[in-house]
Design brief:
single chain; about 625 residues; mainly alpha; Methyltransferase, Methionine Synthase (B12-binding Domains), Chain A, domain 1; Rossmann fold; five-stranded parallel β-sheet; two-stranded antiparallel sheet; 7 strands; elongated; disordered N terminus; disordered C terminus
Length: about 625
C-alpha cells in the first residue's frame, strides 16, 4: 500500500523544507516589483527616462564617435537633447498661457451654445428635470426654519508670508529641477559608458555563454532603438500633419496642438484621441456652429488611422509583436504607478521588456505576457484536446498540420512533443494513467493513418524491415515513427506487436525473413534479454542487419555490438540514415531517393479525419 506524504509535491518541497509553490512565485514577484516601483518612483522614474533616452540616442552617438571621439560625441548628443526638450517646454508654456487668455474672449459664444443645447433637450427630459427640482423645493420647505441671527462682522487681518508657505511653493519647482538634472547626468554617463554597461549586463546574464548573451543583448538593443526611433519619426510626422491641417482650418495656435499630438501619440491607441479633445473644445468655443469642432476631431482620427494603417506597416512592419491588450494594460499600469510621466513611458518600457524577453531566457515570461502571439504551440493544443477526450479535434489538428508542414515535421514537432509531455505529467502525477494511455493510443493510431496516406510505391527493391520492441516491452512511439518514415522512403516496414516473448519474436523473424531488424530497448531490465535475443537472431539469420535504439540500448551498446548489432543509434534520424545507407550497399543502388517535399506535403485524404480504426497490431 502506498502512503501519501503531505509534502510529497516537488513544487512545495525544497531541500526538505516546505517552500513557496512555483505558481505563487510570479505573483509574489509582481507584487514586490510593483511596491518597489511605486515607493521608489522618485529615483526610478528619472532612471527609466534616462535609460530609454540612452537606448534611442545610442545609435547616433555610435555614428558620431569615430569623427568626434566618445566624450565630444556624447556631450553633443546630450546638449542637443537638452536644447530640444527646453525648446518644447518653453513653447508649450507660452502657447498654453496664450490659449488660456484667449478663452476669456469667447465666453459669450460658449454661453450661447450651452443655452442652445439646453433648449434642444427632449420634452420628456425637461419634465424629469422639473420634477426633480419640485421635489427639492418641497424638501426645503418642509424643513423647520431656524431663526437667523445677525451675522457677526469679522475682520480678517492679512498675515505676513510664512516660511512654510514659501517652502511649499518652492519645493515642487526645486524637485522638478533636481529630477531634470538627474536625468541629464544619468543620460550623459549612460551614453559615455554604454559599452562598459553592456559588458556588465552580458556578464550578469551570460551564465557561461558570453558569446550568445552578447549577441542577444546587441540584437535586442538594436531592435529596441530602431523601433523607438521609427515610432518617433512617425509621431513627428503625425504632429506636423496635425499642425498643418489645423492651420488650414483656422484654429488658433495650430502648432501647439501639433506638438501635443506628437507627445501624446506615444500613449498606445488612445493617445491621438486624447490629443484631439482639447483642440476640439477650443474649436467649440471659437467658431460658431458645430462644423469646425467635428472637422478638428475628424482630422485627428483620419490622420491617426493613416499613420497606423499605412506608415507604421511600411516603416516598422510588424514591429516587435506586442499585444494591443498588453499595451493598454501597460499604459494603465505605468500611469497608476508614475502618473502622466508613466503614461508617456508606457510604450517604450513595454517595448524594452518585450524584446528582453525575446532574447534573454531569464526574462522569457515577458515575451509570453506581452507578445502578440499568445497562442499555444500546436503540440500543446493537440495534447489539450486529447486530455479533453476530443479525439476528432486532435486528429483534425494533426491532419491539418501534416498538410501544411509535411509528415516528418508532424511526427517530430507535433506528436512526439505531445507524447513526451504526457509522460512528464504522468511522472509528476499531474494526470492519471488512463489519460496517458489514451494519448499514446490515439497518437499510435495517427502515426499509422498518416503514414499509410503518405506511403508510396516501393523504390528500394526487396528491402524488408521488421520493427520489434524488446521482449516484455510495449510499443515505442519513436520506433513506430521510424517505421512509417522508412515506408515513406519506399521500404516495406512492419511492426511485430507488443509485449511479445523472445521465442515469439524469433519465430516471427524467421518466418518474415527481413533484411533489417530494428530493436527498441528502453528498459534496463530488458537489456540482458535483448542482448541474448540479438545473438540468437544472428545465428538464425546471419545476413540479418540489426539496428538497435533506446536509452537502455545506448547504455549497453558495446554488448549489443559484440552480440551482432550492426549499429546502435541514439536517434531515429540517425537510424533512418544508416538504414538507407545499408540499402544502398546491399542492393547496389546509386542513391536512395530522399523524401520528396512535394510528396511528403501532399494533402491527406478527405476522409482521413473520420477514418475508422484499423485492427493493426502496432
Amino acid at each position: 500500500m502506498e502512503t501519501t506524504n503531505q509534502n510529497s509535491n516537488p513544487e512545495l518541497v525544497e531541500d526538505g523544507h516546505v517552500g513557496v509553490s512555483r505558481a505563487a512565485r510570479p505573483i509574489i514577484g509582481v507584487i514586490i516589483g510593483t511596491a518597489v516601483l511605486y515607493f521608489g518612483r522618485e529615483v526610478l522614474l528619472p532612471l527609466a527616462v534616462a535609460t530609454i533616452l540612452a537606448v534611442i540616442f545610442s545609435p547616433i552617438a555610435d555614428r558620431l564617435e569615430p569623427w568626434l571621439g566618445r566624450l565630444i560625441s556624447t556631450a553633443l548628443v546630450v546638449l542637443t537633447a537638452i536644447v530640444v526638450a527646453a525648446g518644447i517646454g518653453y513653447f508649450l508654456t507660452v502657447e498654453l498661457a496664450s490659449v488660456a487668455l484667449q478663452m476669456t474672449d469667447y465666453t459669450d459664444n460658449i454661453a450661447r451654445k450651452v443655452s442652445a443645447v439646453e433648449r434642444s433637450q427632449p420634452a420628456w427630459l425637461q419634465r424629469v428635470e422639473n420634477a426633480i427640482k419640485e421635489v427639492e423645493n418641497q424638501v426645503q420647505r418642509s424643513q423647520p426654519r431656524v431663526r437667523q441671527r445677525k451675522p457677526t462682522m469679522v475682520q480678517t487681518v492679512p498675515a505676513s508670508p510664512q516660511v512654510q508657505e514659501v517652502v511649499k511653493s518652492v519645493l515642487p519647482v526645486l524637485s522638478g529641477v533636481i529630477e531634470t538634472l538627474l536625468i541629464i547626468v544619468l543620460l550623459f554617463f549612460m551614453l559615455h559608458e554604454r559599452r562598459n554597461l553592456r559588458d556588465r549586463f552580458v556578464r550578469l546574464c551570460a551564465r557561461g555563454r558570453i558569446t550568445v548573451a552578447a549577441e542577444a543583448i546587441d540584437t535586442a538593443g538594436h531592435a529596441v532603438s530602431h523601433y523607438l526611433f521609427l515610432i518617433s519619426v512617425i509621431n513627428f510626422a503625425f504632429g506636423v500633419s496635425i499642425g498643418i491641417v489645423l492651420a488650414i482650418l483656422g484654429l488658433p495656435n495650430p502648432w501647439l496642438w501639433g506638438v501635443i499630438a506628437f507627445l501624446l501619440r506615444y500613449v498606445p491607441y488612445v493617445g491621438a484621441f486624447m490629443a484631439g479633445l482639447l483642440p476640439t473644445l477650443v474649436a467649440f468655443a471659437v467658431f460658431p456652429g458645430w462644423g469646425k469642432s467635428l472637422e478638428v476631431l475628424g482630422a485627428f482620427i483620419v490622420l491617426d488611422q493613416v499613420s497606423a494603417q499605412f506608415l507604421e506597416p511600411v516603416l516598422v512592419g510588424r514591429g516587435i509583436g506586442v499585444s494591443p491588450v498588453a499595451l493598454l494594460v501597460s499604459a494603465m499600469y505605468w500611469a497608476w504607478l508614475w502618473g502622466p510621466a508613466g503614461l508617456l513611458l508606457a510604450t517604450p518600457l513595454t517595448t524594452c521588456f518585450k524584446v528582453a524577453g525575446d532574447y534573454l531566457p531569464a526574462l522569457g515570461f515577458f515575451s509570453i505576457l506581452l507578445g502578440a502571439d499568445g497562442k499555444l504551440e500546436d503540440y500543446n493544443d493537440y495534447y489539450r484536446m486529447l486530455l479533453e477526450l476530443d479525439e476528432s479535434g486532435a486528429r483534425a489538428l494533426a491532419i491539418r498540420y501534416c498538410n501544411e508542414h509535411g509528415l516528418e515535421a508532424t511526427f517530430n514537432d507535433l506528436l512526439i512533443p505531445a507524447v513526451m509531455l504526457a509522460g512528464d505529467e504522468r511522472a509528476q502525477n499531474h494526470i492519471p494513467e488512463e489519460n496517458e494511455r489514451f494519448v499514446m493510443d490515439v497518437t499510435r493510431q495517427l502515426i499509422a493513418d498518416l503514414g499509410s496516406r503518405f506511403s508510396k510505391a516501393r523504390i528500394i527493391p526487396n528491402l524488408r524491415i521488421f520493427g520489434i520492441c524488446a521482449p516484455g516491452e510495449v510499443h515505442n512511439i519513436g520506433l513506430l515513427i521510424l517505421l512509417e518514415l522508412l515506408r515513406l522512403d519506399g521500404a516495406a516496414a512492419r511492426y511485430s506487436g507488443d509485449n511479445q516473448s523472445r521465442d515469439e519474436i524469433r519465430e516471427y523473424t524467421r518466418r518474415y525473413s527481413p533484411d533489417v531488424l530494428c530493436i527498441s530497448c528502453v528498459s534496463d531490465q530488458s537489456l540482458p534479454v535483448t542482448i541474448e535475443l540479438t545473438r540468437e537472431l544472428k545465428l538464425d539469420l546471419p545476413n540479418l542487419a540489426i539496428f538497435a535504439g533506446g536509452t537502455a540500448a545506448m547504455a549497453g551498446s558495446n554488448e549489443l555490438l559484440k552480440a551482432g548489432c550492426m549499429q546502435v543509434c541514439a536517434t531515429k534520424e540517425k537510424a533512418r540514415r544508416d538504414i538507407l545507407r545499408f540499402a544502398q550497399r546491399r542492393f547496389r543502388l546509386r542513391a536512395v531517393p530522399p523524401p520528396s517535399p512535394a510528396t511528403e506535403r501532399q494533402p491527406a485524404a478527405a476522409g482521413a479525419e473520420a477514418a475508422p480504426r484499423q485492427n493493426r497490431n502496432i
